[in-house]
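Troubleshooting log. The previous structure file for this entry was overwritten by mistake, so regenerating from the original sequence record. Sequence copied from the archived sheet and checked twice against the printout by T.R.
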Amino acid sequence: MPTSAPAALADVTASDSTLRRFLHGLPGVDAVGLEARAASLGTRSIKTTAKAYAIDLAISMVDLTTLEGADTPGKVRALGAKAVLPDPTDRTAPTTAAVCVYPDMVAVAKEAVADSGVLVASVATAFPAGRAALDVKLADVRDAVAAGADEIDMVIDRGAFLAGHYMKVYDEIVAVKEASGAARLKVIFETGELSTYDNIRRASWLGMLAGADFIKTSTGKVAVNATPSNTLLMLEAVRDFRAQTGVQVGVKPAGGIRTTKDAVKFLVLVNETAGEDWLDNHWFRFGASSLLNDLLMQRQKLATGRYSGPDYVTVD
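Regenerated output below.
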């Protein structure tokens, strides 16, 4: 796993000025073209066996999430049980990729998923605002890793980024990556606060240069979270980054993805933009809480030809 800029781009992180020059030298985003392409890909129709495959693939990509102040050990255990066995009436349903919780709930989640193959992800670095000193953020990460987290979802310092302090953001990601140890690192940009597509493209490259294993749209805690357009832009970034460096980075849209129809649209974006190499939960995730319920309902509809009642899935 990279801990700093790949050799092919090492020079661009040599100083604040070289990093700034590189990020501001990235091609500007054609907003109209980006949104038109995202809308066009969203009209693709997927039927029958392809839809069944897409639903199972989407289930396997879900980071089943609870990030509330009222989270209890009981709620996290129930979430873990659902991640391991999403549909108790149909054991052919795949497990989710992970459960995502706060650091103090990692040990509970780890016990709940046991040896099922479901991973435990933990938000850290003073999630969701990220307003804390670096030593506090790193302690947050180390606590989560010590409790057994397989993945760390960190938030960048959006204030520093928007003020143009790119090297500060870069150094912080590198430090968090080091503190994460063997845990994979997802870097959250909070795209709804970055204001422009150009900023989202710059943040994507900055995160990848610093060693992100995933780049992630949002915390799910602001008004604008994952959208087809911002996810398309990030998929273009990981595609181009691999072409230039040979390093593959995952993408995780999070927040606002609630229906099977939404999930399928995002899978089409992945296939048509980054390619089949990203159609795997090692490289693409959905950060969601309610999405899984709709995927299970649609899966059951395909299998039986009818929808079940509202009590068919658990209410999270």
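The first helix runs from residue 16 to 24. Archived copy saved in two places this time.
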